[in-house]
């Protein structure tokens, strides 16, 4: 990666101070150290595994025709799909980025505080993988629902994008962009479920533990992004600016393959149109997603002051 | 669900049943759940490392050094010892866990997925634990951070990957290297974890690390059986070859790392000590557990493979 000395601005010092504070408090804060297995909660077969309101096709006539048994199986499968996407983010995007940092491949993050913060984050992410895996295994067992899901659209699009870049530094920065966007979005994504009071209590507890860590990661990743951005050469900054808005749509997109796989394995017929309708409608509705966190970060970094950054955000329809 | 086209839940295999015993106790035994090893009071009068864990030719020169130099060399020795642990966790074990997680998820092996996820939390915690132990040692001793080169164990694994660059081969190489690492790392950590008269920070962090790894060695051998059992014939040969070669990767004496440790300690006659260090004989390697594993999964000619390896000692070209 090309190295150039960039003057460290005050914002970068402030970010390093925040990171230091977060690094020091991790041991007491991390959910891996706080959450204990509880025997008090058991799997309640009468409670749904997912909220109907969160299904992209909840108003579709074909969906509303489903009988109670199929409805419950779709909800359980939606919970598995939700976990599968979470797993892809944790193990396919954020953990590899942490590995990049610990290998010293990310500019600006080779100092002790950044390395400590990221090694803590890797422990958290690994724990989230475990939480998610446990939730998935338990649900499959209790619901006798052995469906297999393809990798999530977010991961497929990320991998397709990474494969297009010939140079290691490009892949590292692209992975950073996807990790940052995911970390900005994931708290809201988890909040959707941790707040739901109709949901299986066991799921809510797991999601809430995860969300608490991610609330801290949201802060950590914003500041990591600032520190990295300051340390990039102008060429690298341009690359990152063009890359940053892309994962927003990837994160928000409805996943046709996953829903098709679910309906096929559940053997619920005549759902092709239902999936298509909801995917097409959703893709028109980017405005329904709150992506203000990513735009705000872009402003803080100065990405939207760069013509390449502004163009990229406009192309994705994220700024006017 | 048993109708056509839908996958079914199969009864657990004996390997899965054994894995399940380990997964069900993780919550109780995982070191990440416990407290205190990094906060143990530092005792400046005690050495940070066991002298005879230094490369043998270096250990024999230790008594000739002034007490402050001896202490400094042992502090950097402790950090060199840790560096290998950090490097294998980071470059071998975590990537192997990510690959195994992917494979076990695709295969619908739920118990294996849980076992690997637990191991990955442990491994990520070991990186944190050992890094922090090094950092605290530097701060307590007022020493500057050494710039260690990458572990030869990792480099040798990568050289093998470079020779076999297909994605599948790279994955099998890192998985094989991880299995061998998990078996050998117990021995690597064992002595220091029980040492007396050594810095409690060094002993207790090593003991915590070992407590997890002692379980991992069993877990990874079970995972290895599953991986091996699921491979087509030509990949079995490749994987066996990786396991056998990896037996020479982990025990590498890491003399380049030691050279940096000696230089960082700035002891009198350091250059001569470096020369002596490079004259170290290759370390003894205990192949028993892995050869038993290879026989169990039905690999023939283990003796011949091992004899060839032994003849070439640890300098066997990968």
Structure notes:
The complex is a heterodimer of chains A (320) and B (318). In chain A, 70% of the residues lie in helices and 0% in strands. With 320 residues, chain A is an all-alpha fold. The radius of gyration of chain A is 20 Å and the shape is globular. Chain B has helices at 14-24, 26-29, 56-59, 67-107, 110-141, 152-163, 167-193, 200-229, 233-249, 255-265, 270-277, 288-296, 302-311. Chain B has 318 residues and is an all-alpha fold. In chain B, 68% of the residues lie in helices and 0% in strands. Chain B has 13 helices and no strands. The chains are: A mainly alpha (320), B mainly alpha (318). The A-B interface holds A 27, 32-33, 36-37, 87, 91, 95-96, 99, 102-103, 112, 115-116, 119-120, 122-123, 125-127, 129-130, 133-134, 137, 140-141, 144-148, 264-265, 267 and B 1, 3, 5-9, 27, 32-33, 35, 38, 90-91, 94-95, 97-98, 101-102, 105-106, 108, 110, 113-114, 117-118, 120-121, 123-125, 127-128, 131-132, 135, 145.
Kindly report the greatest chain-chain contact and the residue count on each side. Answer: A-B, 37 and 39 residues
String of helices and strands of chain B: HHHHHHHHHHHHH
Number of strands of chain A: 0
Strand content of chain B: under 5%
- Structural class category of chain B: mainly alpha
The quaternary organization reads as heterodimer
- C-alpha Rg of chain B, in Å? 21 Å
Described by strand count, sense and barrel closure, the largest sheet of chain A is: none
Mean pLDDT of chain A: 88
The count of helical stretches of chain B stands at: 13
Count of individual helical segments of chain A: 14
Determine the strand fraction of chain A and express it as a percent band. under 5%
Summarize the main sheet of chain B.
Answer: none
What is the chain-wise order of helices and strands of chain A? Answer: HHHHHHHHHHHHHH
Write down the overall mean pLDDT of chain B. 88
Give the helix proportion of chain B (percent range): 55-70%
- Which spans of chain A have pLDDT < 50 for at least 5 consecutive residues? 1-9
User: How far is it from the N-terminal to the C-terminal residue of chain A, by CA?
Assistant: 33 Å
Cα-based radius of gyration of chain A, to the nearest Å: 20 Å
Q: What's the overall geometry of chain B? A: globular
